[in-house]
């Protein structure tokens, strides 16, 4: 009997919350999946785990060899982004082009800069004022230029602040759910009664996976499915409802160290603090209508996140770690 053709290989660069959740979605779709990080120790049943320093051209080329689609979900520490990300981009673009693969880039809202309270769509102007925002805008222009030049197919997928299972380093992450569940003080940032978009990590993964299989939709920016923007106060009220017990809130009206966000991190984040002192509403109607993919309702997403954090805290407690 003739052998079956090999399933397409999808390579996920980076095994943070977005990369791992994406890899799980791809595996459920029956695709071959390779995850790539520095250690190769992140093992998902059914996926190939590879260790690679993606700053090395040779290592990057080997990591994506044989891929049909590559997803760039690599994150870089805040204090290193401006220095490291441009060099990383060049290496990844060269490697993916050499493999003859398509590139899906996990992107942020930073290139838009201050929104002045206006809704952000894919057609919004890029007017970044921060160092990291301008750097991201330059990288995105280079990605799209590479696509236009025919070097490789590229698509940019933007999301608002993440929340959901595995998401720790977020304004709606480890400074919110563990203290809410353990009677501590929850941190909030900026003005509580302004709208602020949050993108559920499962929607990030589903959206990236869909773009990976839609080559006709490359060469542009897409906003991943995101529920209508609540106010931060409304989000905190939903957390209280899902947790079932009251908690105190401390509001940071300016950048300063708090809990896991130390002074060095907040010093780097200060230039992006405008995101919390003006309304930031990301609109994903174009993606939802084109691909028929609705975002997770906020109440359901908060509930799923609370459930995940309950388990996470129990595991940490059982392992002898601090619970919050």
From TrEMBL:
It is an enzyme of class 4 (lyase). Its EC number is 4.2.1.46. The keyword RNA-binding does not apply. One of its GO terms (molecular function) is dTDP-glucose 4,6-dehydratase activity. Gene3D superfamilies: NAD(P)-binding Rossmann-like Domain. Keywords: Lyase. InterPro entries: Epimerase_deHydtase, NAD(P)-bd_dom_sf, NAD(P)-dependent_oxidoreduct. Residues 14-217 form the NAD-dependent epimerase/dehydratase domain. It holds the Pfam family Epimerase. PANTHER family: NAD(P)-BINDING DOMAIN-CONTAINING PROTEIN-RELATED (PTHR48079:SF6), PROTEIN YEEZ (PTHR48079). This is dTDP-glucose 4,6-dehydratase. The gene is strE5.
């Amino acid at each position: 009997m003739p052998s079956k053709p090999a399933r397409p290989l999808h390579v996920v660069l980076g095994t943070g919350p977005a990369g791992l959740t994406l890899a799980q979605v791809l595996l459920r779709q029956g695709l071959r999946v390779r995850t790539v990080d520095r250690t190769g120790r992140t093992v998902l049943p059914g996926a190939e785990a590879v260790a690679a320093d993606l700053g090395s051209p040779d290592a990057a080329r080997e990591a994506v060899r044989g891929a049909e689609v590559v997803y760039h979900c690599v994150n870089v520490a805040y204090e290193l982004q401006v220095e490291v990300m441009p060099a990383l981009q060049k290496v990844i673009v060269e490697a993916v082009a050499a493999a003859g693969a398509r590139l899906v880039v996990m992107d942020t809202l930073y290139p838009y800069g201050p929104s002045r309270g206006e809704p952000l769509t894919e057609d919004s102007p890029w007017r970044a004022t921060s160092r990291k925002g301008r750097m991201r805008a330059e990288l995105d222009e280079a990605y799209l230029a590479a696509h236009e030049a025919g070097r490789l197919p590229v698509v940019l997928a933007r999301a608002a602040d993440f929340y959901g299972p595995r998401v720790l380093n977020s304004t709606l992450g480890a400074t919110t759910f563990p203290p809410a569940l353990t009677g501590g003080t929850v941190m909030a940032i900026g003005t509580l009664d302004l709208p602020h978009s949050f993108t559920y990590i499962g929607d990030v993964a589903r959206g990236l996976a869909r773009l990976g299989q839609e080559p006709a939709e490359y060469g542009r920016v897409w906003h991943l499915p995101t529920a209508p923007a609540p106010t931060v106060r409304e989000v905190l009220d939903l957390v209280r409802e899902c947790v079932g017990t009251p908690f105190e809130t401390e509001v940071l009206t300016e950048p300063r160290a708090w809990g896991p966000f130390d002074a060095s991190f907040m010093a780097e984040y200060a230039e992006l603090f405008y995101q919390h002192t003006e309304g930031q509403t990301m609109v994903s109607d174009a993606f939802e209508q084109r691909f028929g993919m609705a975002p997770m309702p906020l109440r359901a997403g908060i509930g799923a996140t609370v459930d995940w954090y309950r388990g996470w805290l129990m595991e940490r407690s059982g392992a002898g770690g601090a619970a919050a």
